[in-house]
Specification:
mainly alpha, Serine Threonine Protein Phosphatase 5, Tetratricopeptide repeat, 2 domains, two-stranded antiparallel sheet
Length: about 325
């Protein structure tokens, strides 16, 4: 009898235990789902916050990049302004130094004009000395005015002024400088062939002058722009063979340029690819609007006439 009761009770207990476990499992599953949903919701919220932060950081980076570009542009503009101002100051300083040199050398140049007779210097009249001094002062004033016109972009007017100084002086440092600046004026108005003639004649007339080395270097550069490499090498070699150019800045530059040309020629002869020379095309010069009054403006012949008269004078 007891065995029968046990047989009935035991299965009931087992069923009750299984039912309780099943209910516990269902409750835990629901709890886990709820926790999972909550975690997923929190992750979505965190992801949204991170995305918003990323967008904000990206916007800030773009704004910083734009500000940096603006600063770089402003720095570039300021650098150019500083360079332009420095160049103008250098030009003014050079003009002041030149004027001082001219003033200090006037007495020596005037005394050098004395005529020597029988080993004794002949007396020179005060009128002659005064005329010579007045001539130098007048020529110097015209030269400085022409330089000012050049730096203002009045190249034709400056050319006329330099030419007038040269025709008045004919020789000496002032005449040499006038020819050099005349050639620069011709370059700035795109009359390159005439500028090359003036540079060449100037270097021949003043072989030991202060502007000889710069003139030869300018000639080499002009022929280089035209891809006339043989003439470019010729003037570079002339700089290197001129004793008065040994301590000049043009000497070192000429050596470097000639070395580059020779290395390129060696590569070309060896069949290696070299960069092709492209002639420089200069932009046409727009005429300036500024004109001096008729009483102040000197007579300005045509470019061909002024160049021919200069070559004849040389």
């Amino acid at each position: 009898m007891k065995n029968k009761k046990l047989n009935i009770v035991f299965p009931l207990l087992m069923v009750a235990a299984l039912t309780g476990c099943s209910q516990m499992t269902v409750l835990r599953t629901q709890e886990m789902k709820a926790v999972g949903a909550e975690v997923e919701q929190r992750m979505d919220s965190v992801a949204i916050q991170l995305q918003a932060q990323n967008d904000s950081l990206r916007a800030e980076l773009e704004a910083a990049s734009l500000a940096q570009k603006r600063m770089q542009a402003e720095i570039t503009m300021l650098s150019r302004r500083v360079a332009d101002e420095s160049e103008r100051n250098d030009s003014r300083q050079e003009e002041i130094i030149y004027r001082l040199d001219m003033l200090l050398g006037k007495s020596d140049k005037i005394l050098a004009k004395k005529v020597v007779v029988s080993g004794a210097p002949a007396p020179v009249s005060m009128d002659s000395l005064e005329r010579e001094a007045e001539k130098l002062v007048e020529a110097e004033a015209m030269f400085n005015t022409a330089r000012s016109d050049y730096h203002r972009g009045e190249f034709k007017l400056a050319y006329s002024g330099f030419k007038q100084v040269y025709e008045q002086m004919k020789e000496g440092e002032l005449a040499e400088n006038s020819l050099y600046w005349m050639a620069l004026c011709l370059i700035d108005v795109n009359q390159i062939d005439k500028a090359k003639k003036v540079f060449a004649r100037m270097s021949e007339a003043f072989p030991d002058g202060q502007k000889t080395c710069p003139a030869l270097f300018k000639l080499s550069g002009l022929y280089g722009e035209e891809c006339d490499i043989n003439m470019q090498k010729q003037y570079l070699q002339k700089i290197l063979s001129t004793k008065s150019c040994e301590k000049s800045a043009e000497f070192e530059q000429a050596a470097e340029m000639l070395q580059e040309i020779l290395e390129k020629e060696d590569k070309k002869s060896a069949g290696e690819p070299v960069e092709r020379c492209v002639p420089v095309v200069r932009e046409p010069v727009a005429p300036t609007s500024r004109v001096k009054p008729a009483e102040e403006k000197p007579a300005e012949p045509t470019a061909s006439a002024t160049t021919e008269s200069t070559e004849a004078a040389l």
